[in-house]
Amino acid sequence: MKTYLDTLGPGDRELSQEDLALAHALQINGRASFREIADALGVSDQTAARRWSRLRTSGRLRVLGLTDPQRVGDAPWVVRVRCTPDAAASIGEAMARRTDTSWVNLSSGGTEISCSVRTRGAGGEESLLLRKLPRTPQVVDVSAHCLLHIFFGQDLSTINKSGPLTPEQVERLTPAITPDPVTADTPPVALDDGDRALLDLLARDGRAAPGELAAATGLSPSTVRRRITELRAAGVLYFDVEYHPGVLHQNFRAALWLEIDPSRLAEAGAAIATHREVSFAAAVTGTANLYASIDVTSAQLFYRYLTESVARLPGVRHTATVPIHRTLKGPGPYLPVRA
Fold it and tell me: Residue 116: exposed, middle, or buried by beta-carbon count in 10 A (0-12, 13-18, 19+)?
């Protein structure tokens, strides 16, 4: 089904500098009030609210309240599915309809599907999708890679690297809430039914008003405010801006799979996270232990990125690139927590 934005030409989809400033502000703090945003941007709160309403209703962007799966004991996976060319689109569309996938891409000229799957607990065997895929006749091969550590892209986007706001504006908008430090021994956060209902609503609209959330969950507005603050402080909840693919206007996207010397993996991951072309980067299981999503404007720039930036990464043993043909679902990497 086409949206209003799909009917616009590329020039009409692009964000103005004022819109980019608002998007940058929301990426820093998705729950910031219009007054806080207006004060940082030097506009009136009515102007900030009007711009947000226009961008949201036209489908250009929206704010989502997402959860860190590892903080609630879940496991995120990147799954690669090779299948026969005649079946890739139909299998990909079926995967996109599932509630345990958060993004689905057609890659390699339509012969590979890549997707993000979230499983309860650390075992991928708990995913019905991962059990069913190998038995699908048109599927040639399936590989699943558990996300071990995210270097960039969980609560940050490329606009944090290249956005128009000054350091002073960024500081004014940065939330006072700092997530608690998490170590390998930190236990998962226990969620009750009220938390799950609240998180499910925020996953649909991260800027929903406390009164609206209270009415939908049966909690009081004060409890809603308190739980949002507590869940953010615990590192469970964060806010992200989701852009319509046409808004970003990047003509070439690819997945990058790197085999890195394990002794250099942390160093390589930290380095690739700083690259302007990288929208997501994580350490994963498998021979290729560093995964990154790349967004550039042309194949020529992707070649330059490979031969210059990627070539300088420490400890690279092997590089594989997978061009993304079409996005069927996404682009966010995580699912909301559901009851």
Answer: buried
The number of C-alpha atoms within 13 Å of 138 and in the hemisphere containing its C-beta is 13
Alpha-carbon span 205 to 22, nearest angstrom: 17
Judge if pTM exceeds 0.90.
no
Taking only the tens place, the pLDDT of each residue in 30-76 is 999 999 999 999 999 999 999 999 999 988 889 999 888 888 888 88
As a whole number of angstroms, the distance between CA 267 and CA 187 comes to 26
Strands 237-243 and 278-284: unpaired
Residues 6+ apart with CB under 8 A from 256: 291, 292, 293, 294, 310, 319, 320, 321, 322
Main-chain dihedrals φ then ψ at residue 184, nearest 5 degrees: -65, -25
User: Residue 276 pLDDT > 60, yes or no?
Assistant: yes
Per-residue DSSP letters for 196-222? HHHHHHHHH-TT--HHHHHHHHS--HH
